[in-house]
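In the previous chapter we treated chains in isolation. Here, by contrast, the input contains two separate entities that must be folded as one system, with a combined length of 308 residues.
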Amino acid sequence: MDLIKRAIAEGRKPELQKLVDAIPYCRFLGIEVDRKGSELTTVLRFDHELIGNPVLPALHGGVVGAFLEVTAVIQLMLEVVSEDLPKPVDISIDYLRSGKPVDTYARAIVTKQGRRVCNVRAEAWQDEHARPIAALHGHFLIKPQETERN
Amino acid sequence: MSNDLPSTVPEHRPGFVLSGVPHAAAIQLTIMEVKAGEAVCKVPYAEHLVGNPDTGVIHGGVITSLLDNTCGVAVGSKTQLMGHIATLDLRIDYMKPAKPGEDILAFAECYKVTKNIAFVRGLAYHADRNDPIATCAAAFMLGTKAQKGANVASGGTP
């Protein structure tokens, strides 16, 4: 993506909200980035279209999973230099509580950064940070800078 | 007792968008085939589901939703507990990117049901199940609380 390449060329981090806004699926879900220095929280604004169980009601498991995946990718874009968006290799999601029809927040930690693969953990919560609704861990493929490759 | 979904509910009939589930309707998730413990669903290619604007490849999150929901339908068709199941965990391995412009299908098989838990495996593909885009393994909790009148297939969270 141009946005990423330009940022790398200028020796800075890409503007994460602009990056998210450039991805149609993230716009569709309604994901926002709240960055305070090195601390990053993603916000999933509630919308009726995110519901998976209208009876409870509860957020769709796929939406919660996708939100955690996006959170992991954004965290990687902040911490790691990758010429392209990190690609998920595998993800594993634990569903801990039902997602209520309110805004959801998430944070991710890069647990290991390799040259090509990174391990990331992410957690999503709603009212209380200490009561997460879902957790993800996954491996993501990054594209190291051309000059570092040889 | 038939293990098939009640065909009186329109969205459970093959070829129908799962309109009772708002997010499924938002991504036009369509039920293609349901047998006892097996389900095939489809998400048609759409611009708003793109995850990389450079390539036009669908976002992995769409595959997560599709697989989660298809697994849920497979569990529901085996246990008759639609709306009373909840995903416990879901693991997805991404084999290759989806082809831009092509619909994505998912097949899920509920291969074991115990008193409390149903185990499911599934895969996402375009045309050939032997060349999958992604594979998944999931466990669902059975008999979760739901209000009376629950009639929607939910692969969603509890």
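Strands of chain A lie at 31-36, 39-44, 51-53, 58-59, 87-95, 104-113, 117-125, 134-141. The radius of gyration of chain A is 15 Å. Compare these points with the single-chain example from earlier in the chapter.
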